[in-house]
Design a protein that fits this description.
Number of strands: 16
Strand order of the largest sheet: 11-10-12-14-15-9-16
CATH class of the largest domain: Alpha Beta
Order of helices and strands: EEHEHEEEHEEHHHEHHEEHEHEEEHE
Number of domains: 2
Number of helices: 11
CATH architecture of the largest domain: 2-Layer Sandwich
Shape: globular
Strand content: 25-35%
Largest sheet: 7 strands, mixed
Length: about 400
């Protein structure tokens, strides 16, 4: 929401800020050859002119939401001096996420790149989740690629604007935050943040570090063909795959227990590339089944109902679920190939704090003719063998493994 030339923090922003949750959100481009140094420098400069390069200004009144204001400083472009082995690409990506980000202080993002020994390169754009969500990060990259990145007018809102916000959106936002805290009944703020946003338990109460993460790219046409044949969508196909892979990793495929997934739902208006966190959460519950989930038409029916509930009630925060799946949609052509012909583009949110044993997150992004999928699990090993078996069962062959 923009008031008096300033963009207010959204409800999701306030939740992140109040609960101290700011895991990195990352885009990874795997491209052929080496990106031209001037192309990297140009995109970095454009990003610095765009919506990611902002910082938080507190409001004058307690219930008025803070505002984002434009900022001039940013972290420098970082290009690795060493060549990365193909099997180390995800290690390099993880290291890129460990950069110290300060979304509220104006240093909430970083662009970095490295050459890979197989002749490809990998480029990382990482931003704090306190600053934006996955679609916001993609939007910022798109604006930078178009060279139309811009920041809104800076300066504090007027006192009248603060009073208006405090009596309308502000009181509604902070009331929802208070209710969420009451529902969670957590003793510590970090524990509350974890459970609300990432399904985490506190470290002392059973949370475990991330145990495995892997990613692959498939043909978008092939994924669509398989999904349509099963009576569903690519998102439904990925939901089924996520449930099947995690149940296989847990050894519960034949247990017949229900399986639950948290599904981020975008509240963005069409064409909105600049807003910060604009996401809610739907909860999908798959019926107990002995064997693999293959009925994509049933998953589509259940998903539509879950999405409708989330949009209607404007639900935010992850419930405790077995898994979560975030489909960031499709990255536009100008951002897709901005560093050179892309073999695939991976989107993910990386939480170093872990999660309850046996939980897994799945991230999906389409880039032209490819769909890249990433898995991150906690307390359970999800190896390439399980993923390959599930892909084979659907008749899908990966075009690229990260």
């Amino acid at each position: 929401m923009t008031t008096g030339g300033s963009q207010r923090l959204t409800g999701g922003d306030v939740l992140m800020q109040q609960l101290g949750v700011n895991p990195p959100v990352q885009l990874l481009w795997r491209v052929q050859g080496r990106p031209a140094p001037e192309a990297l420098a140009k995109i970095h400069s454009n990003l610095a002119q765009g919506p990611l390069n902002r910082r938080m200004r507190p409001a004058r009144l307690p219930l008025a939401r803070p505002v984002w204001e434009r900022h001039t400083g940013c972290r420098p472009l970082r290009v690795s001096p060493r060549t990365v082995a193909p099997e180390e690409v995800m290690d390099w990506a993880d290291a890129s996420c460990r950069v110290e980000l300060d979304a509220h202080g104006g240093r909430g993002w970083e662009l970095s790149a490295a050459h890979v020994a197989d002749g490809t390169s990998v480029v990382s754009l990482v931003g704090s989740h306190a600053l934006t969500d996955g679609q916001g990060l993609i939007g910022a990259a798109t604006l930078a690629a178009r060279e139309t990145a811009r920041q809104g007018r800076s300066g504090p809102p007027s006192l009248v604007d603060d009073i208006t916000d405090a009596l309308t959106e502000g009181v509604w936002t902070y009331s929802r935050l208070a209710l969420a805290r009451l529902r969670d009944k957590a003793a510590e703020v970090p524990a509350t943040a974890g459970r609300l946003l990432f399904g985490r338990s506190p470290q002392g109460g059973g949370a475990v570090p991330v145990r495995s993460r892997l990613a692959f790219t498939v043909s978008a046409a092939e994924a669509e063909r398989v999904a349509e044949r099963g009576g569903g969508s690519v998102t439904g196909l990925m939901l089924a795959m996520t449930a099947n892979i995690l149940r296989a990793a847990r050894g519960t495929t034949e247990a017949g227990r229900p399986f639950t997934l948290g599904l981020p739902v975008s509240f963005r208006r069409p064409g909105d590339l600049e807003s910060s966190n604009m996401v809610g959460i739907a909860t999908l519950c798959l019926d107990g089944l002995r064997g693999r989930y293959t009925d994509l038409s049933e998953i589509r029916r259940l998903s539509k109902a879950a999405y409708s509930e989330a949009v209607g009630r404007h639900l935010t925060g992850y419930p405790q679920t077995d898994a979560a799946l975030s489909n960031a949609g499709e990255i536009l052509p100008e951002a897709r190939d901005v560093f050179g012909p892309a073999l695939g583009i991976l989107f993910r949110t990386v939480s170093g704090a872990g999660g309850p044993p046996g939980r897994m997150n799945c991230f999906v992004l389409r880039a032209g003719e490819t769909v890249s999928v990433g898995f991150q699990s906690a307390g359970v090993e999800v190896d390439h063998g399980l993923v390959e078996l599930e892909l084979d069962a659907w008749g899908i062959a990966p075009t690229h493994t990260w």
